[in-house]
Design a protein that fits this description.
With about 525 residues, this protein is of the alpha/beta class. About 50% of the residues lie in helices and about 10% in strands. It is built from 19 helices and 13 strands. The chain is globular. The chain binds arginine. The site of arginine has 9 residues, from helix 10.
Length: about 525
């Protein structure tokens, strides 16, 4: 099923072509003055005349009840109620609410990526929440999505941690890491033992690996408990930590060297992609491998073994340069080439209400579980608390910083999850009260509030399709919010259960479609839609 905006756009484009003899974008958008407004004639000397001729030539009789030219050459379009009825019926009859599937790709989504051996903190919130929405939307659109949790579970820190364990400390996620670090900084003997331990770890010494495993396993169990609580789709099988690329790192360096892409600089092996003057350090002076080498190995694995054609990295904006350089090196090596493409799905920081980076009272990073506890305690309900927290994140422009504010995210009115969840609950309660099940219509829109709600509901397929392209979820949240606002107005102005037939059946069908739209949209964002609150 095509979306209504697309059909209008195509018909108007055809009319523009007839009138002007050339291809013109009708520049169609929603308007406050009519249902849609087409601005394609603007900017021409004869804008008004062209707009009038387009309005005349356009084949819109079955769709619009009013087409008129206003101002300097806008074409204002009002959809006919009868046309809305047909579109609504088609959406209601479709289990996908009119959302088309796309040409499927194998997409790797790299998200969450916390560091093992430490608790998750506020810095991991956005990657986890946004990444999960990416997964859900792309899966819904028909892609094969492979989730990859690029866990920080390798490198020099782990030598130190294993050695601390060997010294008799019991591994835990709260103080173990900090204690090991303190000892490393103050005790030269421990420092030296830690260094030797890293070498044994990377060489695969069985005792060292066993100790490392016991820590990583308990870390993964903790992470899974957080993911379960958040309701994100990451599973144990999606953990693909940095350690899993260890055996591939020599090959990365060998292949890049053979291609002449590495230069020695100060004892380290570096790439200078795209004429960059700053190096991407692929092998360190001490022979160890770091973050960049691992990312190059991971990229190859995702393309060669996982057979992905689209690689998405849901990682904070500060890592832009790192990822650009990794992609550039991979392109220069011929590993990353069309049709395969890689993108950084970047996001801004979480700020406190003071406008600075969100921190705990003691000044450190706030634990993620503390944030979840705070939201759930204030909401007095997990679905509402977690939903509010996720919605606050997803409804802000991804690339910008946003302010973490419990009061705002949990407000019962405004652009919040509780407001949308409450609209859904209201629909459900109509069905409970009326003791009616799913009602399929027929739709018979007449009231302006019904018309406005229908217009919004019919936008859903286009909004979801665009969310899949841009991965900008604040546009999806804005749409769902608009649905809830239109529903509230409809609910106030149009009695449902007491209405006479056939109005009652039509209104019930509008209610049912509203509930499904809200539920589906919230689910794409990973947010629950309870039936009661
Ligand atoms: N562990 C990294 C961090 O905490 C995030 C990993 C992102 N993914 C990647 N492929 N580099 O910064």
């Amino acid at each position: 099923m095509a979306d209504i905006g697309k059909v209008l756009r195509d018909r108007l484009a055809a009319a523009f072509e007839t009138v002007t003899g050339s291809t013109v974008d009708p520049v169609l958008r929603r308007s406050r003055h009519a249902d849609f407004q087409a601005d394609g004639a603007l900017g021409r000397p004869d804008a008004r005349a062209v707009a009038a001729a387009v309005a005349e030539a356009a084949d819109l009789g079955d769709l619009c009840s009013d087409v008129r030219v206003v101002g300097p050459g806008f074409v204002n379009l009002t959809l006919a109620d009868a046309a809305l009825d047909g579109w609504l019926a088609a959406a209601a009859a479709d289990p996908r609410l009119g959302v088309s599937t796309v040409e499927p790709e194998v997409v790797v989504v790299d998200y969450s990526g916390p560091n093992a051996a430490k608790e998750m903190h506020v810095g991991h919130l956005r990657s986890t929440v946004i990444g999960d929405a990416v997964v859900r939307v792309l899966e819904y659109l028909g892609h094969t999505v492979i989730r990859q949790n690029h866990l920080g579970d390798w490198g020099t820190n782990f030598g130190m941690l294993v050695e601390h364990h060997v010294d008799g400390a019991t591994f835990d996620l709260s103080s173990f890491y900090a204690a090991a670090r303190r000892k490393f900084e103050t005790d030269p003997d421990f420092q030296e033992r830690s260094r030797r331990r890293v070498v044994r770890l990377q060489a695969g010494d069985p005792d060292t690996i066993a100790l490392w495993h016991s820590m990583i396993d308990s870390s993964q169990r903790y992470l899974m408990s957080v993911y379960d609580r958040l309701g994100v789709r990451l599973q144990a099988a999606d953990f693909a930590g940095e350690s899993s690329y260890n055996a591939a790192l020599d090959g990365v360096v060998d292949d890049l060297s053979a291609l002449g892409l590495l230069r020695e600089s100060d004892g380290a092996l570096c790439a200078f992609p795209d004429g960059s003057t700053t190096p991407l350090i692929v092998r360190k002076r001490d022979g160890g491998y770091g973050y960049a080498a691992t990312d190059l190995a991971a990229l190859r694995y995702r393309i060669d073994e996982l057979k992905a054609t689209r690689l998405l990295y849901v990682v904070g904006a500060p890592q832009r340069r790192h990822l650009e350089m990794v992609f550039a090196v991979a392109r220069a090596a011929g590993w990353l080439a069309p049709p395969v493409h890689a993108s950084h799905i970047a996001f801004g920081s979480v700020l406190g209400t003071d406008g600075k980076m969100l921190r705990s009272r003691a000044g450190g990073a706030i634990k993620l579980t503390e944030l979840l506890d705070g939201a759930v305690a204030r909401a007095d309900d997990p679905a509402i608390g977690i939903g509010a927290l996720k919605y606050a994140d997803l409804s802000s422009d991804r690339i910008k910083d946003y302010t973490f504010d419990y009061d705002r995210m949990l407000a019962a009115t405004g652009d919040t999850a509780p407001y949308l969840q409450y609209a859904h609950v209201r629909v459900c309660s109509i069905f409970r009260k009326g003791d009616v099940g799913g009602v399929e219509g027929p739709f018979a829109v007449t009231h302006p509030a019904e018309h406005a709600l229908a217009m919004e509901l019919l936008e859903f397929p286009g909004v979801v399709a665009r969310a899949g392209e841009t991965l900008e979820f604040h546009r999806l949240t804005a749409h769902l919010h608009a649905v809830a606002v239109r529903f509230s107005a409809f609910f106030e102005q149009c009695p449902v259960l007491p209405a006479p037939e056939p109005v009652r059946a039509s209104r019930l069908a509008l209610c049912a479609l509203t509930a499904r739209t809200l539920r589906t949209g919230l689910d794409l964002l990973g947010i629950d839609a309870p039936e009661r609150m």
